[in-house]
From TrEMBL:
Source species: Marinobacter adhaerens
GO MF: glycosyltransferase activity
Domain of life: Bacteria
Entry protein name: TIGR04348 family glycosyltransferase
CDD domains: GT4_PimA-like
Domain Glycosyl transferase family: 147-289
Keyword Transferase among record annotations: yes
Keyword annotations of the record: Transferase
Transmembrane in keyword set: no
């Protein structure tokens, strides 16, 4: 079977959707499929189209329907699809959901946030991650210098990520706190670059590292004691998968996309956008070793969700579901 994956993120991009598309390509090839990743689709032959983004891939989906109405379509729903584009561009976004023979959601609560009529064809897929190369998880406390308790924020700097929330929270810490916030990510625009540079100049607890290569970002995790995931909307962030696989405790905003990965009972949530609550939670991880160890145990327990084997099995289930539903269509 020949599968085409379409993503808006071009070759060489470090955007999460590009990484997802290329990882899915590898996993599907391992499962025995022939797979290509494209950024434009003009009706070329394939046996199945897998579209990342309901809204951004809408035109390609329309073309696929026109040229290949009897072939299966899978649509992977992103955070912006679920939490923005459904409302801003309902015609295109909902049409893509309707056209799909199978929908992929990247966290367990996606079904609560899409129309009920689509839930029967929704499959949850947990994105996988490999532990950092050469990483051996320490027993008990992570190694930390006497002078620094490292908190990392990893992801492109953009409004949806609320990327400087941890930096703002670090301004509220007690004078004796050893916390330093290290932020890695490409700015979405010039304004975000300016904001990051200004924050670094005025906040001695904050440093912006710019866009890092994958291996460098993983090593930042190894050096850190906590990861902050501060997004206001997420479809299921792969950085949480990476943190869990590395045994790195996570402090996360209490949005559906984070709760759908970490679970309702996870102890490290703060109210989204609440700087004071985030500061208190950051300081608690530094000062209360029992709490830090609780978070570490919880991410350790979740790590098994985020293996390549599980992700490959979910992709194969999505293909099977799409084929089954497509074969039942009346043309």
């Amino acid at each position: 079977m020949y599968i085409t994956i379409i993503t808006p993120a071009g070759q060489g991009s470090k955007a999460g959707n590009r990484a997802t598309a290329e990882r899915w390509q590898r996993l599907l090839v391992q499962a025995g499929y022939c797979v290509s990743v494209v950024t434009e689709y003009k009706g070329e032959h394939c046996d199945l189209l897998l579209a990342l983004h309901a809204w951004r891939s809408h035109e390609a989906i329309r073309i696929f329907e026109k040229f290949w109405p009897d072939k299966p379509l899978i649509v992977a729903l992103t955070g912006t699809d679920i939490y923005r584009h459904q409302q801003e561009y309902p015609e295109q976004t909902l049409h893509s959901m309707q056209a799909a023979d199978a929908l992929i959601g990247l966290h367990a609560n996606v079904g609560d946030d899409i129309p009920e009529r689509f839930r029967e064809k929704l499959l949850t897929l947990y994105q996988s991650a490999e532990p950092p190369a050469g990483y051996r998880k320490p027993p008990g406390n992570a190694e930390t210098s006497a002078d620094t308790f490292e908190v990392c924020v990893i992801g492109h700097l953009r409004d949806e990520k609320d990327s400087l929330r941890a930096a703002f929270a670090s301004r509220l810490l007690s004078p004796g706190s050893r916390i330093r916030v290290s932020c890695a990510g490409k700015p979405h625009n010039r304004n975000w670059q300016t904001l990051a540079e200004q924050e670094m100049q005025s906040n001695p607890r904050f440093r912006w590292l710019g866009e890092l290569e994958k291996a460098e970002a993983l090593q930042l995790m190894v050096r850190s004691q906590v990861l902050v995931m501060s997004s206001v909307m997420e479809g299921g962030a792969n950085v949480i998968s990476e943190a869990c696989r590395a045994g790195l405790p996570v402090i996360a905003s209490d949005i559906p996309g984070n709760i759908g990965l970490l679970g309702e009972d996870y102890a490290g949530y703060y109210p989204v956008g609440d700087t004071h609550s985030l500061a208190a939670l950051m300081e608690r991880t530094e000062q209360d070793n029992g709490f830090l160890q609780l978070l570490r145990r919880q991410v350790d327990q979740l790590a098994g969700l985020f293996t390549p084997e599980n992700e490959q099995a979910s992709l194969e289930q999505a293909v099977s579901l799409a084929l089954k539903r497509c074969s039942g269509k009346a043309f």
